[in-house]
Amino acid sequence: MYLVIDLGNTNKKLAVFSKGRLKDIRMLPEISLPAVRSLVQEYPQITHCILSSVTSYPPSVKKFLDKRFGLLELDEHTPLPVRNLYKTPGTLGKDRLAAAVAGHLRFPGYPVLVITAGSCITCDFVNSRGEYLGGSISPGIQMRFRALNTFTGKLPLISGKKSADLTGTTTNESILSGVINGTLAELDGIICQYLQKNRKLKVILSGGDLKYFDKRLKSKTFAVPNIVIEGLYQILELNAGTND
Question: How far apart are CA 116 and CA 99, in angstroms?
Answer without folding.
Answer: 8
